[in-house]
Amino acid sequence: MSGSLGDSSTDEGEDIRGLDLVAPDDLRERLAAAELSGAVVGYAPRIDYDELGMRTVITRVLARESCVEDVAMDLRGRNVSDVYVVTGEYNIVAIGRFVGEGAFDAFLSRLATDDRVLSVTATVTLDTVCEYDTVGFLEE
């Protein structure tokens, strides 16, 4: 380990001056409270999907109003990690990860031929800027 205890940078050379750091005891208490309340259930690894050759695709679906919940439930599966029922022009948003065009094409074809689905658009992400953010959970 380089530097002294008073050094203001990490081993990777990142400058940490000015960051709002949380004391370890405070962090442990917050995590313990979140686990007890059920807000945090287990822990999962952070996966670099780009490194695995997977493309992240954001799919927006307009389903018939009476079928929104069923279509959303049917989207859960092997390639879809997140499904949200939303407001706006589309009523479902799904985040999927696909290796190769075949799996992605099959996914879209299935949606396009589903009688409950009125419209589908998909956007392939170019770069992951932020993923798995705690969204202020650990901040005071």
UniProtKB/TrEMBL annotation:
Top-level taxon of the source organism: Archaea
Name this protein carries in UniProt: Lrp/AsnC family transcriptional regulator
